[in-house]
Structure formats: C-alpha cells, structure tokens
Design goal:
CATH superfamily: Retinoid X Receptor
Radius of gyration: 25 Å
CATH topology: Retinoid X Receptor
Largest sheet: 2 strands, antiparallel
CATH class: Mainly Alpha
Number of helices: 10
Number of strands: 2
C-alpha cells in the first residue's frame, strides 16, 4: 500500500517535471526560431541592396523583348498607349524587371504569378524611382532633354494648370529627399512595393506573401538597428510606400487612360523617360 502510494507520487512528480520542461522549452524553441529567422536578414538585405546598386548604376541587362500587351493583364487600360509607354521607357522598364528578378526567393514562384507581379508593379516602382530623382537644391525634376523643370516653372506653366496635376509629384519628391534614404533603405522599400499581393490575380499567391513578409521584417530590422534614435522612421517609410503607390495610380491614369490634357501627359512621360 505504502509502496503503491510512493510510486504514484513519483509518477506525478515525473509528469509535473515533464510539463514544466515542455512549458520552458516552448519559449526556447520560439526564441531559437526567431533567432534563425533573424540570421537570414543580413543575407536578404545584402542581396537586395547589392542588386539595387548594380542595376541602377550599371548598363541595362536585357532580359529579352518588352512585354506583350496581351499578356499584361492591365484591366481598363488602352493597350496601345500602354505599349507605347513601355517602349518609350524601355531602359527603365528593363531595370525594374532585373530588380524584381533579383529579389531572393522569387525564383521559386510560379511563372504566372511572377508575370502578374511584374506587370502590376512596373508603374509603382517607376514612380518610386522617379521620386528619388528629385533635386531638392533647385526643387526640380530632370527631363530627357537634359534640362530641368523647377517647381516655380511647373506652378506657372499654362496658367497653373500643370501644377494642379503635377503638384503632388513635387511635394512627394521633396518629402523623399528630406528622408535622405540610404541605398539599402531605397532597395528594401522597392522590394516591398514589388511584392504587394493586392494586385489582380495575386490575392492567393501565398508564396509571394511569405517572401514579402520576410523582406518586410528584414527592412524593419535594418531600420531599427541603423536608426535606433528614430523610432518612427520605419513607420514613416511604410507611409511613403503607401502614398507612393497612391500617386502612381493617379499618374498611371494620366499616362495610360488620357485623363488629362496632352501637355500634361507629355510632361509626365518626359519625366519618366529621364529614369534611364
């Protein structure tokens, strides 16, 4: 009887010990998992930054012919205008394509999803790149002809009509210039923009969502590590990404659907042409 009671007590003590070890090991495993993920951040950050610097400073690496209009999936867009725009800005489009291809993990994404990602992010990424070309010293954007158009010139052109359309472009360019982005930040922001899955046909693309989340966390890790005194910087970068995509949609309408005068459309096209 006493022996049985002793054995029961030993079994109970053993079970409690196992439970305690399980409770203690669960956070340990979680911490180890987080550490394993964080170990990947420097590799991801370095790969994206190096690709960004190489692609946007060196000659364009041709990936083949420009996209076919029938494959773009651009809903409600004049396909002829879309193709004209792509050909006009072909060097910039090819840089964007090279950059998207360089994002770690995208090699494992299905061809169809990769195409949709390309077609849906071209304008967003071109517009973001455009904002980085703003010159805060004379408040201007460069044009293909080698000239610059300043804020004051844009404000007075055509009696101010041009400014009513392109004013937000100058304001956003100035905001981006004030951030003094590093190449690493610019590269990671572009990767996050490219990996947005709210585009047509990508709502169920879980493989892209996983890559996006990894790049997102890597960007947060980098910014918080490099700017420990500026706790709002990462949030600020995310807000700029959102607003950049909003403006890109507006200017996409101007370029591709003719929602403005020919003078305004031509001006916006000339600015985009300067990207290469």
């Amino acid at each position: 009887m006493d022996q049985t009671r002793v054995m029961d007590e030993e079994d109970k003590a053993t079970e409690e010990s196992v439970d305690d070890n399980q409770e203690q090991s669960q956070p340990d495993r979680q911490d180890k998992g987080n550490a394993d993920v964080e170990e990947k951040y420097p590799v991801i950050i370095s790969a994206i930054r190096d690709a960004y610097v190489d692609i946007f400073t060196n000659p364009v690496k041709n990936l083949g012919s420009i996209f076919e209009a029938s494959e773009t999936g651009m809903v409600g867009v004049n396909e002829q205008m879309w193709m004209q725009f792509l050909h006009m800005c072909e060097p910039s489009v090819m840089r964007i394509s090279n950059f998207i291809h360089s994002i770690p993990g995208l090699n494992n994404v299905s061809v169809n999803h990769k195409k949709l990602l390309h077609y849906g992010s071209i304008l967003d990424l071109m517009f973001f790149q455009l904002s980085l070309h703003f010159n805060p010293l004379d408040m201007s954007f460069p044009l293909k002809c080698g000239k610059h158009i300043t804020r004051s010139q844009a404000e007075t052109f055509k009696g101010g009509f041009l400014w009513s359309v392109v004013g937000p472009l100058y304001d956003f360019g100035f905001q981006m210039a004030r951030l003094q982005l590093t190449d690493t930040e610019a590269a990671l922001m572009m990767a996050i923009i490219a990996l947005q899955i709210d585009r047509d046909g990508l709502q169920e693309a879980t493989e892209i969502e996983e890559i996006h989340d990894m790049v997102f966390l890597a960007c947060q890790h980098h910014v918080e590590k490099c700017f420990p005194q500026d706790r709002q910087r990462f949030l600020t970068l995310l807000m700029k990404i959102t607003y950049s995509r909003y403006l890109a949609k507006q200017y996409g309408d101007i370029i591709l659907q003719g929602h403005s005068s020919p003078d305004v459309s031509q001006f916006v096209k000339e600015i985009f042409e300067c990207l290469h």
